[in-house]
């Protein structure tokens, strides 16, 4: 938040920079891609964290205190430390807009900058984009199960630190949550804040009824009562209804009740019946208590009468996948005075072989339905004619081919920074959330379902595929 973040990096970024400087590479240009690899939990993601990544990049300044600390490590030569005193990011950044649905292996963000600058920003970019994209992706799954706009994020007390709580709340709203309990996140980002009261409120009064009365007096137009402190159906809901009748007599309408424990399917159905019979058909039933997308889907399948879902721990920590697995890999270099040279990392694991070159990602849409059909990773200099049929193929199982005839192409990576300066103002969070909603709706539900989702096609252009395989053959031949 209000901290100096320049040294938010791994030591090896600085030692590599010192080595590049010593070897006269400070005028070379490098292209790095930030992307995430395949995993068994997240088949698609929602990109988030770009705003904070850009803020970080533009604020990089090595203070005298920073330089003194680095000098104390006795690792760096004085000419390099002198260079750091005027260090600024002067390169270009290309990124998908926040809220874009993204898939494994395709660049979420690309940095093209002088080598030392491009190398230095790796750790911080991964930290910022990995975390928010992870939480936005988890929120998207939960919101899909609950239905868009029906989830409150309130995981701050379980988040792994203040930054994780604040920026996790921001990411959760991008992913599809409607509000947060996090007041600081509400202030910083304009997120709607929501909350009721704790069990301790009820326990601090002589009776549950008195506690509800006192709360209703304080918040007559936003009265949502937690009804499971003692006995949900025998005490909590009847006392809530009693207070709701008093509110209505005074000219106010209650908001509803919250369930936080017990059999939420059974309790919500009985509570709904009791509220309706008492004339409070519009009072909502909110539920919380270690929820995630699987629990929500199960409760809905059981006919639970829940209007609003409060999700905390399993969302803010992304409990089933605690790390996105994003990486930042060199894709091309341009030595000073020379042309661009594509670079590739090889591995015995085909998923870890990188895609070389300075690239663009195109999303292929069906003209009739407007739905996304496939993504195509291509070299940036490639051009495509939408009047010509486009055939894409699986990058490993190349016999799997699809030809599109009535389609449109949309380039996903947009330039965000040019020469270290913003190309255009970044969108407000409300605009990002609206865009993210449209993005998710552009995909068939088969791609977003929880169990065994249909695999979305992410393919390489013929030219990129040819360059990649030529490089693999040449490198393997050189190395025996």
What would you note in describing this structure?
By secondary structure, the protein is of the alpha/beta class. It folds into two domains: 11-135 and 322-478, nicotinate phosphoribosyltransferase (Alpha-Beta Barrel), CATH 3.20.140; 195-288, Alpha-Beta Barrel (TIM Barrel), CATH 3.20.20. 39% of the residues lie in helices and 20% in strands. The protein is built from 17 helices and 21 strands. Strands 13-12-1-5-3-19-20 form a seven-stranded antiparallel sheet. Strands 7-6-11-10-9-8 form a six-stranded parallel sheet. A four-stranded mixed sheet has the order 18-14-15-21. Strand 9 (256-259), helix 12 (264-277) and strand 10 form a beta-alpha-beta unit. Helix 10 (208-218) runs parallel beside helix 11 (232-249). The chain starts with 10 loop residues before the first helix and ends with a helix.
CATH superfamily of the largest domain: nicotinate phosphoribosyltransferase
Radius of gyration: 26 Å
Instruction: Give the uncertain stretches in residue-range form.
Output: none
Helix content: 25-40%
Structural class: alpha/beta
Distance between the termini: 51 Å
Total count of domains: 2
> What is the overall pLDDT average?
95
Number of helices: 17
Order of strands side by side in the largest beta sheet? 13-12-1-5-3-19-20
In the CATH hierarchy, what is the class of the largest domain?
Alpha Beta
Overall 3D form: globular
CATH topology of the largest domain: nicotinate phosphoribosyltransferase
Largest sheet: 7 strands, antiparallel
